[in-house]
Amino acid sequence: MTLPQRSTNTPAAVPRRADAPAGGAVARILPFAAYIAFVAIADGLSWLGMADRDLRWLYAVKIGVVVALLLAFRRSYVELARPAMSAATAALSAAVGVVVLLLWINLDAGWMQIGASPGFDPGNGAGGIDWLLVAIRLAGAALVVPLMEELFWRSFLLRWLEERDFLNVDAARVGMRSVLVTVVLFGFEHNLWLAGIVAGVAYSWLYMRTKNIWTAVLAHAVTNGLLGVWVIQTASWTYW
């Protein structure tokens, strides 16, 4: 008996992508939302009278939750599986990070700020510094926050504003409206809103120019890492 042949005119079923836009959005929103939720919790506890000194260890919990969420959704971050950067691209990203740092610590006039940041003082109460707190803060700011924020602000929101199926949006073709909305919101996420806008422009430019989210992550990490070193050296805790 001859088996019937499959028609060549019938298209094969296309498997559903594991990183479909809906799930991809959740994977990029939740770590950022958790981070912001902890900021709100800390502000609420401070308003209720808890001393900032007693809230410092909440940062470690916050970073731990964000890391756990990033690991849980790691298979959804298809944009992280990009080819390695060339030495020239990596150098450009690092240079952008340094420029943003220099601007960040100078764009601090009164009108360039929203409210007053309590900062993060790792003093141990005896005139010294709690270096474990410093290590956690520095690692969180330089390694975790850049990845979490760039996945949300640049990889997700920047492209989602252009098209809801954001995973298929070419970063180099994102329109000016999406860029402006993203960088302004990114700026006002920070106490130093103008410095934040400048940083958002720089990181967005890198991502759109290279179409590689790792360039923005690297620049962001350089900015935050060097800022942390400067804060420790100068005891400018309000910048943390």
Low-confidence stretches: 1-22
Number of helices: 8
Helix content: 55-70%
In what range is the share of β-strand residues? under 5%
Rg value: 21 Å
Q: Count the strands? A: 0
The biggest beta sheet is recorded as: none
Helix-strand sequence: HHHHHHHH
Word description of this protein:
This protein has about 240 residues and is mainly α. The chain has one domain (about 20-240). It contains eight helices and no strands. Helix 4 runs antiparallel to helix 7 (about 195-210). The longest helix has 30 residues, at about 130-160. It starts with 20 loop residues before the first helix and ends in a 6-residue tail after the last helix. Residues about 1-20 have low confidence and may be disordered.
What are the main properties of this structure?
240 residues; mainly alpha; 8 helices; 61% helix; disordered N terminus
Summarize the helices and strands and which ones pair or pack.
Layout: H1 21-47, H2 52-55, H3 58-72, H4 87-104, H5 131-160, H6 176-188, H7 193-210, H8 213-234
Short structural summary:
With 240 residues, the protein is mostly helical. Helix content is 61%, strand content 0%.
